[in-house]
Specification:
This protein is of the alpha/beta class. Helices cover 41% and strands 10% of the residues. The protein is built from 13 helices and 9 strands. Bound molecules: thiamine diphosphate and magnesium ion. Magnesium ion is lined by residues 165-167, 195, 197-198.
């Protein structure tokens, strides 16, 4: 039972949690505290983010969006652990994080804006402790230990959750972060989104470790492998990990085993390095279809509700795309903002020059400009 295992880090055998089978059948012997309303909320968000992902790819192919990292097939791992957090908990996803941010209430127009290269796309909801991801992989892992440590020192019941990929789990950053998190018993949760590929490097060649979760044990940390396409298992594992962290019982590593059904990003062609049959096999474990089967078997879902949800989701996404495309252009002077507390003289000069050039032009913007003055540092 996972509830027993979560109470101890002396258990050295890494377990795997799967509650809902790919056929949509629940294992009644496993703990699973979840209401029908919560299940329906999860399903709605999964469908919305899948349709958004499809739309984002089309926008990129039409030249209306920059490079975009798909999350097809990873909807459950993206949405569910962040949905179990409170707004004041810290969340630091990776670039493949549209679902994580959506779970926390970021409007999809901002995700599009970000992937169009506009830094106004990181306008997270007021009161949320969400952080922008870093493109260099793994650099946030020690920072998340730091966030958790700060929460502990300040006596705040806050949890810090980091996402990382299977490839990133090979980086030294994870060693440092877990050493620290384990030793200081920090309220940190490391969600390894094992989607089986790090660009063209398969999971099998990534590490000789049998599971990525078992790495946790050597740091005195509880590690659990979860079926990342099983919404019930993810919800239960994340809920228990968060509760443990809040009770002061230390960190958790959750390896969520899923599959990247799409390319690494729109700049990649997965057909060049892996057989299509592999993705086809994983489609049978699809998290969205799996939850739909389960909801239908409980009389909570039917065809009519499905088409209504899809129509509503498409309309919402259309509104978000329009809001994104009608966003006022950024003010070129913003490139000088948020870089230095005290701007160096050459930047001050360049900013003045640009200001002069822009004088006669009409620029619309919605940001407060930084002051033109500055001093030598
Ligand atoms: C420090 C650093 N090295 C290399 C890269 C190039 N890079 C971008 S994504 C990636 C693979 C990451 O794979 P994984 O951690 O499995 O995440 P996934 O993309 O599968 O979600 C690499 C090597 C980078 N962004 N940062
Ligand atoms: Mg990966």
């Amino acid at each position: 039972m996972v509830s027993m295992a979560l109470n101890t880090v002396s258990e050295s055998k890494t377990q795997r949690l799967e509650i809902l089978s790919p056929e949509g059948v629940v294992d009644p012997s496993l703990p699973c505290e979840i209401t029908p309303e919560r299940l329906l909320e999860i399903y709605r968000k999964m469908v919305e983010i899948r349709l958004f992902d499809e739309r984002a790819i089309k926008l990129q192919r039409q030249g209306r969006l920059g490079t975009y990292p798909q999350i097809l097939g990873q909807e459950a791992t993206q949405l569910i652990p962040p949905m179990c957090l409170e707004p004041e908990d810290w969340l630091v996803p990776t670039y493949r994080g549209q679902g994580c941010y959506y779970a926390r209430g970021l409007q999809l127009r901002y995700s599009l804006l970000y992937w169009a290269g506009d830094d106004r796309g990181v306008r997270f909801p007021e009161g949320n402790n969400d952080m922008i991801f870093s493109i260099p992989v793994g650099t946030h892992l020690t920072q998340v230990a730091g966030l958790a440590w700060a929460a502990k020192l300040q006596g705040q019941p806050r949890v810090a959750m980091a996402y990382l990929g299977d490839g990133t789990s090979s980086k030294g950053d994870l060693h440092e972060a877990l050493t620290f998190a384990g030793q200081f018993k920090l309220p940190a949760i490391y969600v390894i989104e094992n989607n089986h590929w790090a660009i063209s490097m398969p999971r099998e060649r990534q590490s000789a470790a049998k599971t990525l979760a078992e790495k946790a044990w050597s740091y005195g940390i509880f590690g659990l492998q979860v079926d990342g396409n099983d919404p019930l298992a993810l919800h239960e594992a994340a809920r228990q990990a968060i509760e443990r962290a809040r009770r002061g019982e230390g960190p958790t590593v959750l390896e969520c085993e899923t599959y990247r059904l799409g390319h690494h990003t729109t700049a990649d062609d997965a057909g060049r390095y892996r057989p299509a049959s592999e993705a086809e096999a994983w489609k049978r474990k699809d998290p969205v279809a799996r939850l739909r089967r389960y909801l239908s078997s409980r009389g909570l879902w039917d065809e009519e509700r499905e088409s209504r949800l899809k129509a509503e989701a498409e309309a919402m996404i259309q509104r978000e795309v329009e809001a994104y495309e009608n966003f006022p252009p950024p003010n070129p002077l913003d490139m000088f903002a948020d870089n230095f507390a005290l701007a160096p003289w050459n930047l001050i000069e360049q900013r003045r020059e640009l200001e002069e050039l822009l004088k006669d032009r009409q620029t619309r913007h919605d940001l407060v400009l930084p002051p033109a003055e500055g001093r030598f540092p």
